[in-house]
Amino acid sequence: MKKYVYILLLSCLCLLISCSDSFLNRDPMGRLDESAYMNTDDAAFKLVTSCYAPLHDGFAYSINRVAIGSESVDDADGGGSDAGDRPQTTELGKGYPLSSNPLLQEAWTQRYTGIGRCNVGIAQLSKEDLSLTSGGQPISKETISRYISEMKFLRAWYYFDLVNTFESVPLITTVQSPSDRLEKASVEEIRVQLYKDLDDAINDPNLPWRKNFDLSTELGRVSKDAVYTFKGRIALFFAGLMEQNKMQGNAQEEYTIAKNATKEVISNGGLALATDFQDLYGGDYDKGFASSECLFTCLSKYVPETGYLTDSYAIMNVGRNNVGGWGGNVPTTDLAMSYDTQDPRKLFTIISDGDIFKKGNDQEIHNYKGYYNFSLLQNRKAFVPYDYRVDGNLQRSKWAPYWIRYAETLLIYAESVLKTEGSKDEVVKYLNMVRHRAFVSTSKKDQFAIQRKFEGTLTDVNESIFESRFAVKITDNLEQVIKNERRAEFALEGLRLYDLIRWGDYVKTMQAFSAKYNYAGKGSEASDRSWPFPIPQAEIDRSNGVLTQNENYK
After folding, report:
1. CA–CA dist 269, 275 (Å, integer)
2. CA 267 to chain centre
3. pLDDT of 104-132, one tens digit each?
4. Three-state SS at 402
5. Each residue of 50-64: pLDDT tens digit?
6. pLDDT digits (tens, 9 = 90+) for 26-82
7. What are the E-state strand segments in 284-421?
């Protein structure tokens, strides 16, 4: 079947499934009268599409996810017009947010919306004797199986967002009545369910590897590579909690799970890093998304006919003033200073005040003064060059986030090999694959700019220079190298909180940040009581006390 999630998500996805609004837009935990709906053409495809839809909510998903994952810690500040623009981000960054924090409420509501849709879809498509059609033709059992695997991955994806934020949450895997109120499951119970969903998807022969995708019709859908890498990601997290005695289990077994999962991708995926880091974030998003480095994303496109705009993240997190953005997601000075002066990833991660970009036959001088921007820096990964905006509008482009990249597969594998006392030569090999791309083959000049401050320290690096100055050696402190490499590679992509929590580095990192910068109170309340963050009080009230607050916030 030539339909695929990408097509529906190019425009206003919810409108494209509006023919089934009476079914899909009801409370996702509700008991639904589905009989008439399931007899409509393309009902199965609309079900699976509805499960992807929450990922395309700019404010409630991509902006929210990066605000919690990057702006709450040392990589970025919330930014905005003034101190009162996004106080919820500032509050979270201090380290002890209120249970009424809007970011946390938004994360809770939006992720459970996704989970509820997945539960509905899995329940409906798992029924026996289905007579589903697409284009008037019967849908094969193989296609239905693939849809279910995609939904199981997405359910695990939404749940892990919740675990990364709140740790223990209600575990719901069936269609619930709106009156049902469930208590929190333990993180150990949630771990079992996440692995079950991911293993079901992995073991489904109908879920393809990315190398077998028809990129003209399937780009944007879940692949086996994405499932394996995500399994590795969550295994590292659980291992870290176990090492810190924050959950029961054997950390070494978790590191082994991460190692084996990512090794499957390395051995069988036929993937490669994009040769030039700039290709991922330069502006030609088709080039980046079509590269085999892109394992999971949510593709987007401005569609003039519907007036649908692209993900709001792109305008939210670039500079204000003449640039036309809203000034969010301001990289910290600490992040900028963490890069090696010869690392061009900095160039394609951070823009400086005064940098000059091309604007057709004119130029665009970035001015980051006069608003809530302490560092006078902005997010290059969010910036859409003028040539790739329709009518120069930052919301009219193909900008979209990378949620999983092959670079992460390699770094998860390197870290898990190190943690399981494997070959240090193996660890170094995969670390250097990522670093070689950064220092040797990545451009030293931003092709869309006239002048960039960070270009001034960059020089060409050949193989000899790389080996002598930048290649990781087995005698290096490999654990620290991995930490540094993950920060440099994934900065501003929403993974920093995840890393600091699982490494047990959150408290000391944020306390040190507060002592050094003393900006907007960031890190001033960080302590062992900071994480997990508080369950939204509104959810506790709604449950009539069945749902209880995390102990560190009572």
Report:
1. 17
2. 24
3. 999 999 999 999 999 999 999 999 988 89
4. strand
5. 999 999 999 999 999
6. 344 444 457 778 889 999 999 999 999 999 999 999 999 999 999 999 999 999 999
7. 294-297, 328-331, 350-352, 356-359, 362-365, 377-379, 402-405
Which residues lie across from 357 on neighbouring strands?
364, 449
The answer for residues whose C-beta is within 8 angstroms of residue 90's C-beta and 6 or more apart is 77, 78, 83, 520, 521, 522
Of 195, 189, 162, 111, the residue nearest 533 (C-alpha): 162
What single-letter amino acid sits at 31?
A: R
**Structure token pair of residue 452:** 């960039």
Of 430, 496, 432, 447, the C-alpha closest to 348 is: 447
State the residue for tokens 């799970």: 257
Q: Per-residue DSSP letters for 498-511?
A: HHHHHHT-HHHHHH
Rounded Cα distance, 113 and 158, in Å: 9
Average pLDDT, the chain: 92
β pairing state of 356-359 and 449-451: antiparallel
Q: What is the rounded CA–CA span in Å between residue 492 and residue 155? A: 24
Using CA atoms, how far residue 545 sits from 30, 234, 503, 542, in Å, is 21, 30, 33, 8
Instruction: Determine the Cα–Cα distance for residues 248 and 245; give it in Å rounded to an integer.
Output: 7
Would you state the structure tokens that stand for residue 202, as one six-digit string?
């992995």
Per-residue model confidence as pLDDT tens digits over 186-244: 999 999 999 999 999 999 999 999 999 998 889 899 999 999 999 999 999 999 999 99
Residue 351 and residue 500: Cα distance in Å, rounded?
24
CB count, 10 Å around CB of 554? 7
How many angstroms separate the CA atoms of 461 and 337, rounded? Answer: 21
Sorted by where each starts, the structural domains of the chain and their CATH numbers stand as: 1-207+516-554 (1.25.40.390), 313-399+423-492 (no CATH)
CA 96 – CA 329 distance, rounded (Å): 20
